[in-house]
Design goal:
With 423 residues, the chain is α/β, with parallel strands linked by helices. It contains ten helices and 20 strands. The protein has helices at residues 17-28, 67-74, 90-102, 105-130, 149-164, 174-180, 202-215, 255-260, 322-335, 383-398; strands at 10-13, 33-36, 53-54, 82-84, 142-146, 169-172, 190-194, 198-199, 219-221, 226-229, 233-236, 241-243, 246-249, 269-278, 288-291, 296-301, 304-313, 350-356, 363-367, 370-377. Strands 4, 5, 6, 7, 14, 15, 16, 17 and 18 form a nine-stranded mixed sheet that branches.
Length: 423
């Protein structure tokens, strides 16, 4: 038997969905892979308890016109979908400045086609993966539900633009919504049916990826806190060095700290979100949905119902803010009268950190000046949806192939302060 030199293997930092997708596609291409996870085998990350949505409809980056103005209004509401915790942080100020500079129509127009193409490609890969292992993929579309006429008009305008980009969409009145999902009453003025969106059980997807990776010879090591990225190796807090021909940083919200060990700034802030899973809900919808005003996601998962929401820029803090959780519960109960606050009593509140870049685009590609180190992070709320295509792109770059989609817009050093070397 041939013993492969450990220096030929690929080291992937992070076992969230993006890291696992990178490892899976690398292993499928014949590479030796080891994944290093800072937490325990059943630890907490955004990938297991998120809303489980695959969303080609989400091709507008987080930095978009109107977001800053709306965000300032929401700051005054403790139950709003968005909050920035004030703190003295140069990184936060830089991030905020870049966010404001990118929240314009030109940036959205320049990003839309790439994000659409990546989402649709990822959706095809999910379909392919569902033939290899079962993760409860349901290809029924997504409903954007609107409680007010004003919101419905805004969403219908966006839908017209989405159609121009080739997405399959239907604007629905309440009667049409009742036909699409007769299982549950919805108190709304109408909604948009995004027919190419779908949903799944993210915990099952992550578990299936791990199992498939191990079948391909990949290794996952837990409680491996990476302290620094060096030349052809990473150094753990324990002092152990793990060699690798190439290193993929897929550390989610912890990516900036790892990048700084390379003397590189990767502008990013952690966006905390919450979810709750009702094991026996009074009624279960067929389709997943987003509540337009409250920015709350509602996803059926088997016999359970997951409710998720909020974007809280607060550093790497996982504490639970019950006022923000209360906002999620109230919104879900308003739209779905079968639900009541009592349904959520005793239900575990989960929190996770989404890695958010200031321009709303992920970082995918080689670190400037270091062809042996790649970054795959910064997907914000879209880590699950874009996980497979990110993994495929990383595998292509590692193999020296031309990537399926251009990566210049996603380059880790693309932002003015992103390419700066840390002194």
């Amino acid at each position: 038997m041939t013993v492969r030199d450990e220096r030929e293997r690929i080291v992937v930092i992070g076992s969230g969905v993006v890291g696992l997708c990178c490892a899976y596609y690398l292993a499928r291409s014949g590479r030796s892979v080891v994944v290093l996870e800072r937490g325990e085998i059943d630890g907490n990350n955004c990938s297991r308890e998120n809303a489980g949505m695959v969303v080609p409809s989400h091709f507008t980056p987080l930095a978009a016109p109107g977001v800053v103005t709306q965000g300032l209004k929401w700051l005054l509401d403790p139950e709003s979908p968005f909050y920035v915790r004030p703190r003295l942080s140069l990184d936060l100020m830089r991030w905020g400045w870049e966010f404001v500079m990118h929240a314009n129509a030109n940036h959205v127009a320049g990003s839309a086609e790439l994000l659409r193409d990546l989402h649709l490609a990822s959706r095809e890969l999910f379909d392919e993966l569902s033939g290899e292992f079962d993760f409860g993929l349901k290809q029924r579309g997504l409903l954007m539900l609107c409680e007010t006429e004003g919101r419905l008009e805004e969403e219908a305008e966006l839908a017209m633009r989405d159609r121009e980009l080739g997405l399959k969409i239907e604007v629905c009145d309440p009667k049409r919504l009742a036909v699409l999902d007769p299982n549950i009453e919805m108190r709304v003025k109408g909604g948009i049916w995004y027919k190419q969106d779908c949903h799944m059980e993210p915990g099952r997807f992550v578990a299936g990826l791990k199992a498939e990776l191990e079948k391909l010879g990949g290794e996952i090591r837990y409680q491996c806190e990476v302290e620094a990225v060096g030349d052809s190796h990473v150094r753990l807090e324990s002092g152990e060095k793990i060699a690798g021909e190439k290193i993929v940083i897929a550390g989610g919200a912890w990516t900036p700290g790892l990048a700084k060990t390379l003397k590189l700034r990767v502008p990013m802030q952690a966006g905390k979100g919450y979810s709750m899973t009702l094991k026996n809900p009074p009624k279960l919808p067929r389709l997943c949905s987003l509540l337009g005003e409250a920015k709350v996601a509602v996803t059926p998962m088997g016999d359970s119902l997951r409710i998720a929401g909020t974007m809280e820029i607060c550093g790497n803090d996982l504490s639970i803010n019950e006022r923000r959780v209360s906002g999620i519960i109230k919104a879900a109960c308003r739209v779905f009268p079968a639900l009541s606050p009592e349904c959520f009593e005793g239900v575990k509140r989960w929190s996770g950190l989404r890695p958010c870049s200031p321009d709303g685009l992920p970082y995918v590609g080689a670190v400037p000046g270091r062809d042996d180190v790649l970054v795959a992070s910064g997907h914000a709320m879209l880590g699950l949806s874009l996980g497979p295509i990110t993994g495929k792109l990383v595998a292509e770059v590692v193999k020296g192939e031309a990537p399926s989609y251009p990566l210049a817009q996603l380059a880790p050093g693309r932002l003015p302060c992103g390419g700066d070397r840390v002194a």
